[in-house]
Write a structure and sequence with these properties.
Number of helices: 10
Mean pLDDT: 96
CATH superfamily of the largest domain: Zn peptidases
CATH class of the largest domain: Alpha Beta
Shape: elongated
Structural class: alpha+beta
Helix content: 25-40%
Radius of gyration: 23 Å
Strand content: 25-35%
Order of helices and strands: HHHEEEEEHEEHEEEEHEEEHEHEHEEEHE
Length: 380
Amino acid sequence: MGLDRKTDEYIESHHGEAIELLKELAVIPSPSGHEERRAEFCRAWLERHGCGNVYIDEALNVIYPIGCSDDGPVTVFMAHSDVVFPDMEELPLREEGDRLYCPGIGDDTANSVVLLMAARYIAENHLVPKDHGVLLVINSGEEGLGNLKGSRKIVADYGGRIRRFYSFDGYACNAVDKAIGSRRYRITLRTEGGHSYFDFGRVSAIHQMASLICDLYSAELPKEGRTTYNAGVISGGTSVNTIAQECTMLYEIRSDRKENIEEMERHLHGLIASLREKCASVDISVIGERPCASGVDPALQAELNASVTDAVRKYFGRDPEFAPASMDTNIPLSMGIPSIGIGCYEGGGMHTREEYVEKDSLIPGMKLGFDLILSCFTRS
């Protein structure tokens, strides 16, 4: 659709304010499950800039509903407030030339800033949705074991009313239109244990867990689609001279096909059953689950993809690269809702403590985000 001159000038003249907002927001600690401080900051900021009816729901989503009726259709735009880093103290920010460095400053703080600035513009100009409501959401629980809590809550509350779903996430020019599903498990193995010398020969929980990991890593993968697995965390034992009584592992299966996840899960449970028969007590629990896509209308999804492609081309001068991923869009895609993820900044170091944002990229990034959001509004 494109931006009019007024909006274009607004974005360029407010670039400095967007950078200051990014600096202020980025240092607020916000690990998954502890987004309270960042959520409250966003709520207060939106209200201070004229956004009405803003509220924080029980999942810690900050929601700005615009033109929403009790049962009418809505389009959702969201960016997540949580970061992968566990810090509960202020995050370290530094500025070097054209870059801002801070853990989580790109994923997903820069994208949140774009959404907040668009919300402010809508409120200041009293814009009205064209034909159905719009939800602007700073959502919780996207990272790690947050298990897409915020996205799940929005879809649960609005369900079949959602017509389209956008997630501002990741870098500009990286688009996500397919969902990589996953299941994450906590596996705890217990044995008798004992003294490393006097009880030598007794079963070690660490040894048995190591054997389980070797068996899992030797599994034959499904031939269709792409499927992966990972033993990400392992802990246990008491001391160097103790035969371990207990060992715990966090294990993950990912795939772009639901049936592949189920096949790998059957293999996992078969190995655990064998362990239980041999020598050990084994507990397994699902600690996270992200669904694959299901039942999305290809024509509607293609329409959404085309609009994002046009916008990225317009403001960043190249076509986006489409690839499957695991993100907030997994939930609506699993419910057959056309959905897409797209970033609104350029930078690097995602999920590292050296993460950075190119400051100048927020100008085309805001233009991209504004264009997609304002396509739902009547513009004077």
